[in-house]
């Protein structure tokens, strides 16, 4: 007999017919709600599938396909009904749905062995047996609604749990963020590097980064037939449909027919006439992105276009109207000969006749056609320009035709009131008050032709007048050029130095090209507003003292306020991190916030810097990652102008810290 000791969590197995407590032949532990044991005569499990005889109080039972299910229910009366069941079964499940405990006795025997197993089943308790052993479940567990099936241990599983064809229902499912093992087809695991889950797709060659990638399963219908490969990452277009899937062929940006239906980039090997996956949006990784496959040199951040010269190829050379159609295929995320990656994002350019309010019949286009708006149809249409302007006939090589000359001569002959009149030699002619005759203007009031001839070389009386205004001895303008009157509003003055600009008596709206700063400056009415933008060159340091970031220095004016906005792309070779500061002119006040990742990629740190040349007390990017740092702040200069310089240092000695060329700072004068 087997009895369950709930305090010690042990069972006692008795061999033979005894139904009372006797010395145990075998003692086993009750662990994780699973009862398994082996007696001296061999494994008990090997005898269970034979004949079973059981007694219960009130019951109801079903039995199908070698599986017996028994429900103990509240007795409708006080009688002690007895149920016995003898059958060869593979699985037996017993539920106690009553409010009181019931005793269950299972007698298991074959021709040579006989065991008695006795359980006391509390309310809301279940026992069942399958080929894996005996199980006990109480009210803390989860009972199948149908009353059938095998229960899954809710804690402490030591092996894979196979639910067969049954679904898993839960309020939420949390994935292990450090999974181990091999993800086979149909497996979803967490990828902490990309910060998302990923699923191994059909075929096992493509891993879908959930929430990051979009893929499509297509049929390779290239003509002539070729095998598409991930290593070549060919661009493909839709060419039809086969077997309820889209068919694809190589795309090319030479004509609209070959480029308009570009759909994605091959992401696994697809043999001719076979199915496979292409990527329409997302990160295509583990490929050669140096550009060597294309005979080019690619860099991080390059825009990649569909090649107009090679079918299926990509290029970082932007096509134009003469060389091909513009189809953006994506961007170089990481340049590497083996582990490179491209972010796929296809954007197809438009033909002029594909715009919604344009109608062009390409079959009737001619060299003299122009795009003309037609109000009656609210469309822009291609029309012959000579017809639109009312020309009698088309011109030939820029000359009027004989018909046009006849029309022109007819207009000339129709002129009336011919110009007539008399005048004095070397005087200027002018119409008289009636407008029909010409008379001379007297030299007493107007210059003569002789005086006007002095303009050539300016050597006589006109020179005297000019000398009274601007010296002809080669003087240059040393002061600012001034304008007065409303007629000069909005005049643009080019090529002034900062000193010349600040010396102007400026009015609101005045715009000046400052050659010292190489930037356009706008006068707001109270100060000159402008914006300076600089990109850092690759800068590396291994010391813990402040060093200038190459390319990030700015000349700032006295008594001015500047807004600072920027981004550092940083790399550290260990977990020491990187520190930042800046130097400012004498008397200036500075406040800059540096915002980046802390010890892990999931947390951030904000550090405030208010001292000139003093490094931040804490380091950023101690997670030893390639990451970004946001830079925001303000500088207010005093009476001294000078230079604003941004600096950095390694958090620990000998660690290499790098500011990459993707870093920039922008300052904008706001007062």
List the keywords:
single chain, 671 residues, mainly beta, 6 helices, 48 strands, 40% strand, extended, disordered N terminus
Could you characterize the architecture of this molecule?
The chain has 671 residues and is mainly beta. Strands 1, 2, 3, 4, 7, 8, 9, 10, 11, 12, 13, 14 and 15 form a 13-stranded mixed sheet that branches. Strands 38, 39, 41, 43, 44, 45, 47 and 48 form an eight-stranded antiparallel sheet that branches.
Quick synopsis:
This protein is mainly beta and 671 residues long. The chain is built from six helices and 48 strands.
Spans of at least 5 consecutive residues whose pLDDT stays below 50 are: 1-55, 139-154
Assess the beta-strand content as a share of residues. Answer: 35-45%
Query: Which structural class should the secondary elements be placed in?
Result: mainly beta
**End-to-end CA span:** 94 Å
Please count the beta strands (DSSP E, at least 2 residues each): 48
| Rg from alpha-carbon coordinates | 45 Å
What is the residue-mean pLDDT, rounded to a whole number? Answer: 78
How do the strands and helices of this protein lay out in sequence?
Elements: E1 4-5, E2 10-15, E3 26-31, E4 34-35, E5 38-39, E6 42-43, E7 51-56, E8 60-64, E9 67-72, E10 83-88, E11 91-96, E12 102-109, E13 114-121, E14 126-130, E15 133-137, E16 188-191, E17 196-200, E18 207-209, E19 214-220, E20 235-242, E21 245-250, H1 256-259, E22 262-266, E23 275-287, E24 303-306, E25 314-315, E26 327-334, E27 340-348, E28 358-359, E29 369-374, E30 379-384, H2 385-389, H3 402-413, E31 420-421, E32 428-431, E33 437-441, H4 449-453, H5 461-467, E34 492-496, H6 498-503, E35 511-514, E36 519-523, E37 528-529, E38 531-535, E39 539-541, E40 547-556, E41 561-572, E42 578-583, E43 589-597, E44 604-609, E45 627-636, E46 642-650, E47 657-659, E48 664-669
Parallel strand pairs: 9-11, 19-21, 28-30, 31-33, 34-35
Antiparallel strand pairs: 1-2, 2-3, 2-13, 3-4, 4-15, 5-6, 7-10, 7-12, 8-9, 11-14, 12-13, 14-15, 16-17, 17-18, 19-23, 20-21, 20-22, 22-23, 23-27, 24-25, 24-26, 26-27, 29-30, 32-33, 35-36, 36-37, 38-48, 39-47, 40-46, 41-45, 41-47, 41-48, 42-46, 43-44, 43-45
């Amino acid at each position: 007999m087997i009895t369950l000791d709930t305090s010690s969590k042990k069972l006692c197995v008795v061999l033979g017919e005894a139904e009372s407590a006797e010395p145990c032949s075998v003692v086993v532990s009750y662990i994780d709600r699973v009862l398994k044991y082996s007696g001296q005569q061999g494994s008990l499990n090997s005898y269970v599938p034979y004949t079973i005889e059981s007694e219960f109080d009130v019951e109801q039972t079903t039995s199908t396909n070698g599986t017996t299910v028994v429900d103990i229910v509240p007795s409708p009366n006080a009688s002690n009904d007895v149920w016995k069941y003898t059958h060869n079964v593979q699985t037996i499940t017993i539920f106690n749905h009553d409010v009181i405990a019931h005793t269950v006795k299972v007698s298991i025997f074959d021709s040579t062995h006989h065991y008695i197993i006795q359980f006391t089943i509390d309310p809301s308790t279940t026992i069942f047996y399958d080929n894996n052993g005996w199980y006990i479940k109480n009210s803390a567990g989860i009972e199948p609604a149908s009353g059938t099936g095998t229960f899954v241990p809710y804690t402490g599983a030591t092996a894979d749990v196979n639910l067969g064809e049954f679904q898993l229902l839960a309020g939420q499912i949390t994935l292990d963020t450090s999974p181990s093992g091999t993800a086979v087809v149909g497996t979803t695991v967490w990828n902490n590097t990309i910060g998302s889950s990923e699923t191994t797709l059909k075929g096992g060659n493509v891993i879908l980064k959930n929430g990051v990638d979009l893929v499509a399963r297509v049929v390779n219908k290239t003509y002539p037939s070729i095998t598409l490969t991930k290593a070549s990452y060919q661009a493909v277009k839709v060419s039809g449909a086969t077997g309820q899937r889209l068919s694809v062929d190589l795309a090319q940006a030479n004509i609209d027919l070959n480029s308009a239906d570009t759909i994605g980039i091959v992401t696994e090997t697809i043999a001719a006439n076979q199915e496979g996956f292409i990527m329409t949006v997302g990160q295509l990784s583990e490929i050669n992105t140096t550009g060597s496959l294309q005979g080019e040199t690619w860099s991080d951040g390059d825009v990649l276009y569909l090649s107009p010269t090679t079918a299926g190829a990509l290029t970082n050379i932007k096509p134009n109207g003469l060389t091909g159609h513009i189809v953006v295929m994506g961007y170089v995320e990481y340049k590497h000969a083996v582990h490179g990656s491209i972010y796929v994002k296809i954007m197809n350019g438009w033909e002029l006749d594909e715009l919604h309010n344009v109608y062009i019949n390409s079959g009737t286009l001619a060299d003299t056609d122009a795009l003309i708006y037609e109000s009656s149809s609210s469309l822009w249409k291609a029309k012959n320009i000579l017809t639109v302007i009312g020309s009698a006939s088309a011109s030939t090589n820029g000359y009027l035709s004989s018909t046009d000359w006849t029309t022109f001569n007819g207009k000339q002959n129709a002129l009336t009131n011919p110009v007539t009149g008399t005048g004095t030699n070397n005087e200027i002619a002018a119409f008289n008050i009636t407008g029909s005759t010409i008379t001379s203007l007297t030299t007493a009031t107007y210059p003569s032709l002789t005086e006007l001839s002095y303009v050539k070389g300016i050597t006589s009386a006109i020179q005297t007048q000019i000398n009274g205004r601007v010296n002809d001895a080669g003087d240059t303008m040393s002061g600012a050029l001034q304008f007065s009157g409303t007629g000069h509003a909005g005049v643009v003055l080019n090529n002034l130095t900062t000193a010349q600009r600040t010396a102007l008596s400026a009015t609101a709206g005045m715009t000046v090209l400052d050659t010292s700063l190489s930037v356009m400056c706008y006068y707001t009415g109270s100060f000159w507003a402008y914006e300076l933008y600089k990109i850092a060159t690759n800068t590396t340091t291994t010391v813990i003292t402040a060093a200038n970031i190459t390319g990030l220095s700015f000349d700032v004016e006295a008594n001015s306020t500047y807004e600072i906005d920027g981004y550092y792309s940083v790399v550290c070779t260990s977990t020491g991190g990187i520190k930042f500061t800046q130097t400012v002119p004498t008397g200036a006040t500075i406040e800059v916030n540096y915002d980046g990742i802390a010890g892990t990629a999931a947390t951030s740190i904000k550090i405030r810097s208010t001292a000139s040349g003093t490094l931040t007390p804490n380091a950023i990017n101690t997670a030893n990652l390639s990451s970004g740092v946001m830079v925001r702040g303000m500088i207010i200069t005093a009476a001294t102008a000078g230079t604003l310089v941004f600096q950095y240092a390694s958090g620990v000695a000998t660690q290499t810290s790098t500011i990459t060329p993707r870093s920039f700072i922008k300052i904008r004068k706001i007062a």
